[in-house]
Amino acid sequence: MAATIDPLSGAVPALQFLRARRAFNLSSMRLLEEGLRAGATYQRLGGTLWQPLARVSVAQARVVHDAAAVYGAATAHLG
Questions:
Q1: Is residue 13 in a domain?
Q2: pLDDT at 49 over 70
Q3: Quick check: is 49 in a domain?
Q4: Residue 79 pLDDT grade (very low, low, confident, very high; cuts 50, 70, 90)
Q5: Has residue 60 got a pLDDT over 80?
Q6: CA–CA separation, 17 vs 47, rounded Å?
Q7: Model pTM score
Q8: Is 5 left (phi over 0), alpha (psi -120 to 50) or beta?
Q9: What digits encode the pLDDT tens for the residues 15-29?
Q10: Do the domain assignments include residue 15?
Q11: Which pLDDT belongs to residue 1?
């Protein structure tokens, strides 16, 4: 007699992997955003020559922040 296998037993490790990957991705995005903002802070200290680059870094940090918010909302069912 063949043993029956629970069809959802294979889905549990996959779901755990997806949850861990989601947490890693969100953490990486937060780290990147903080790095861009810190870089902008140092660029502002460089005087007027560095101000345009500081504005670009802040804009990039906002893009990363918005992307993280969208990704977090899109994957909220995994959290």
A1: no
A2: yes
A3: yes
A4: confident
A5: yes
A6: 46
A7: 0.83
A8: beta
A9: 999 999 999 999 999
A10: no
A11: 60
Residue 64: how many other CB atoms lie within 10 Å: 20
Q: The tokens 């779901």 sit on which residue?
A: 15
The 10 Å CB-count burial string (b at 16+, else e) for 7-39 is: eeeeeeeeeeeeeeebeeebeebeebbeebbeb
Contact 19/79 with Cβ under 8 angstroms?
yes
Domain enclosing residue 49, as ranges: 22-78
Nearest to 22 by CA among 68, 66, 62: 68
For residue 11, being part of any structural domain is answered with no
Share the mean pLDDT of the chain: 93
Expressed in percent and rounded to 5, the helix, strand and coil fractions of the chain are: 80, 0, 20
How many domains is the chain built from?
Answer: 1
- Token output for 72: 């977090």
